[in-house]
Known about the structure:
Radius of gyration of chain B: 25 Å
Structural class of chain A: mainly alpha
Strand content of chain A: under 5%
Helix content of chain A: 55-70%
Strand order of the largest sheet of chain A: 1-2
Number of strands of chain B: 22
Order of helices and strands of chain A: HHHHHHEEHHHHHHH
Largest interface: A-B, 44 and 51 residues
Structural class of chain B: alpha/beta
Distance between the termini of chain A: 28 Å
Distance between the termini of chain B: 34 Å
Oligomer: heterodimer
Amino acid sequence: MASRSDAPALAADDVTGAGMHAAEHRRPLLRGGPAYLPGVLAVTVGLTILLVFGAITPGFLTVANGKAILLSASIVGVLAIGETFVMISGSLFSLSIAQIAAATAMIYLPALRYGIGAAILIALALAVALNAVQGSMIGWWRANPIIVTIAIGSLTEGGAMVISGNRNIYPPEGNTKFMFILKNVGGISVSTYLFLFVGLVAAIVMSRTRFGMQLYMMGDNRRAARAAGLPVANLTIGAFVAAGLCAGVAGLMLAAISGQAQSSLAGNSTYDAIAAALVGGSAVTGGRGSIGRTVLGAIVIAAVTDLALQRGYNEGAQLVVKGVLVFVAVLLVRFAGRSGTRTA
Amino acid sequence: MSDGLTEGQVAPAEGDVPLLAARDLWKAFGATQALRGVSLTIAPGEIHGLCGQNGAGKSTLVKILTGLVRPDQGAISFQGREVRFARPADAQAAGIAVVDQELSVVPALTVAENVRLGAQDTPFFVRKRKADANVTAILERVGIGDIRPDTRLETLSMPLRQLVEIARLLDRNAQLLILDEPTASLSRGDSLIVFAALRELVSRGHSVLYVSHRLDEVLDLCDKITVLRDGQLVAMHEIAEINHQKLVRLIVGEDGTRAMAEGAANAAHRSNRATHAGHEREIVIERVSLPPALTSFSYRIQPGEVVGLAGQVGSGATEILRSLGGLEPDALVDVTCDGKALRLRKPADAIAAGIYFVSNDRQTEGLFLSRSIETNLVGTRLRLLSKLGFVRTGKARRLAASLAERVVVRGARLSADAADLSGGNQQKVFIGRTLDASRNRLLLLDEPTRGVDVGGRAEIHNLIRNACAEGTSVVFSSGESDEVLALADTIITLKAGEVVAVHARAEMTEESLLAETTGTVGPAEVSVGV
Lengths: 344, 530
């Protein structure tokens, strides 16, 4: 369904060219700009607001606070990188990554008894497998991503609750190796390094590899991608597997921060991750977005949340600020227009 | 004749006030002059045929009458009153409605719901019995009053669904119905059902503007026929004054045939090339079939041969190309290449065999519009440009540059979005993407120059000729006879999903081509004239 949704809007017209003429009236507000313009704008607007309010908030524009913001951005940021793969590929978004991350954490902690390396591998394998299932259903059967990810998300969370007897899961007695993620190296936490490292790898994958470039093409126009012989089913699975890896890494980070795990460990972070990708200018219709801007989006959201905290706003006000941010980003993407309507 | 009508309020008592009088309509799209002073008069209770080749201006005229496009010049009066349509809703409110090839009825709803769909005057609480009686009264006007209003539309046949759509337009008070190629997807028998309904309709005072390429139908159905050519009004005739032969000549024009004779000289030197190649290199299409649109097709293609599929809308040419390209999973395709049977279930299969399909719809099935021109040129062959999954950008860039040069995409940075290109350049990029002499065996081009200006068209024709010179075979479809005659070595005429005849290029003229594709000569019918 993802590709069908944009097909009618692009309906070609007949030989008179009247359709092209009509399209001119629908030219986007920020016409002719490059595709990354809306994302850049959204982040710029966010940063400007931040700096203005930050300057008048004592304690906000400090190095220590900057580090704290990066740390709090790291988990949602890694999840958002995962969502960006799915969004660019044109399969809307995944609504199950928080559950996958929690399940990863729940298998990771007990598995530590086999050594930390094995535990990480087992945990990531579970996350990848669960997402490969979702990707296969969406890629091969063209199943609706929202329905599939809600269903697998419930199954994962429910399954985890049943297996754990709805109890908290703790690491083996005395095992603190998994806490390495909280360590500080050069004054910055490993969690932050991990976030930036995942972002760097993902950015290289999306911009330099065949997989990444094909993912962009498929997201832009799935029918054309199929007609051109691209492996659309496998690419879709690939996007979900990448998202699964990210969810898995986020699960490792969550486990370290909490020191325990249960099925609701990741809370609402699915929505925060989607919000971060949207603020970075990704489009749920596919083909638009970049890892770098998603990373920035996650940092902007974390900074805004931090700012609201420092100014003493309550949780409700924080949510409102976040909502406004996403709204503005989506509007910018919208008015920059899908370039498909441009015909000049 | 129009002079007497220019005064806005003509006395309505006069019996011969036309329902619609469009006078001296002009319209240009950029550099293309789509209409040059066209006039059209339709009387109440008349079925008026509108004929002309693709690009003659039919669609533009229809769009003006339905408020989709505003004329640069000219006036329209409807029911004796001057009208100006700023948008489609204005035309509908005045009583002009169009039935497109794509129906806008909803199969899952009942007949009554479809008829009332979108009606402004539906009360909040619907009194079902009274509403059903109204619906039945409307259905009677198209001669299907015996269909129960609570029948689900999906249980009805295609022609009946079309009539339900017409009924809905009548419910919205349509006086003039414009039908654009209404029978393109209908069989002959189904068409007759629609014709009967249209006759019923005009007997009740409505009028119909009937746009069609199927000249036998137009001659059969209409009271008057208007012919357009190159945006100009060629003739308006009473049905009694005209026959098929005369109509074809009006559509093609005096110099149409002469220009084609010159094109023949160009093509002549290529016509023998096909035969010298060895038979083991040929691609044998034993059978392609995709009912109901395409009954059956078979042909042996020689290396370097250009086969033109000539036909009007609904001829089955598109289906042949799509099926061979692997885009129709339901098609029955039996093709052997180098003596091996090919499996063509998906586009990737076809491409693996060197068969490349170029859709007639470059925007939805061709280009990646928000990606760069460079990506569009090389993005589908990244496998050859990458090592261990990493794309070698320098190599990709060089290939893109050489392809861009080859397909003559001018005045564009390769990093710009494909959406920023003109239609012609987009089409060139689309075709250029498939060109690779070492892999191409067969190019399938569906309407390769649709929506492309004259200059771009010539360049695309050259691209195709060059590909053939390198040994690639080409099968293309075109609704425009001059294009078929200019490009093809072999011309296969098609009509309603069946092959009419296979000709060498030299045997055909624009007239004989049009005659075969519009229906006087056909396998199921007795040959009459031309």
